[in-house]
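Example record

One chain of 373 residues, shown exactly as stored in the release files.
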Amino acid sequence: MSLDVTFLGTGASFPSPARGASALVLRRAGQCWLFDCGEGTQTQLMRSHLRAAKITKIFITHLHGDHMFGLPGLLCMLTLQRSPEASAAPIDIYGPLGLRSFLWRSLELSHSQPVLPCRVHELVPTQDQCPAGEFRDFSGLDRGAALAQAPPGTVLHLDAETDSYLLLEDEELSVRAFRLFHRVPSFGFVMEEKPRPGKLKVHLLQELGVPPGALYGELKRGRAVELSGGVTVRPRDVLSPPVPGRKVCVLGDCAGPVGPGARRLCGHADLLVHEATLGDGQQDAARQRGHSTPGLAARFALECRARRLVLTHFSQRYQRRGDGRSDIDTLRREAEAAMGGQEVTLAEDFMTIEIPMKNKTEDFVTTENPMNQ
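Predicted structure tokens for this chain:
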């Protein structure tokens, strides 16, 4: 099953001719999941190889405009692209408390009436996710009578035991959110596939007298079977070890994690997407603004033992000029130095990174910006 990540916007603060505002798409099993939706994401989708109509879930890391101002427009565009008679499952939107009110009010005040059904699931932040005195309680926004007019959804609270928020889970994967420190409460998201059953050892099944067919399927699903002679065959006796699933972690803007949940959930990530707004020489300014530098991102990746680190959300001051001071390649060199020479990737708009299934070949495949080809 294919799994890849495409960056639609990799710049900080605002979209520019060189870099779009924050947005990336994770594709798996024919679905597209959008992470952040900065201004101009609609245009970036049109310029990419992706199909906006395939978006089924949207994850917003925090309530800063360069990460969510594109959301109302995107929903309106999806509505216009869809036939009024067409029925579809609702788009699930996940983000911090207050997102539901922002979305509803934006559409209400602009007289926009998207027929596209959606559900908004809000994460209740904790006060230690932003500087003291800057935390705002949005729990009372558009409640009461107004609530009936807003999109349906749920309110999700922090699970103290796991220090995370469980967003969804099925037989194949789970998605959790964890807390980050920023100027406003920010979150990271982890998509983790569950281990796949190992291969059946057919020669052992034949020796045990297990007939091909339904019993093979039961064993593959992890269930013991009983043969006609009363012999019980257990999955562990005839299956090779399970194959680990893949894990992709996407962090919002942050100066670091809050609590132990982030490091635990991101452990051994196949792909870790981390912001690096300013260079290591601007560490004090980055910390003051609630942002990270390449060195900070690299240290977090090392703590998590991530297999691959991708930096994004670059200040507009960094371009490919080769002057040393503002050359964006300096950010990569700083991160690689902190990681002892391990390769680090700088995200570019329209770059796609494929994450292969765990097998003998575990190399990543990166597609450069197709607009430059």
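Notes: Residues 71-81 form the longest helix (11 residues).
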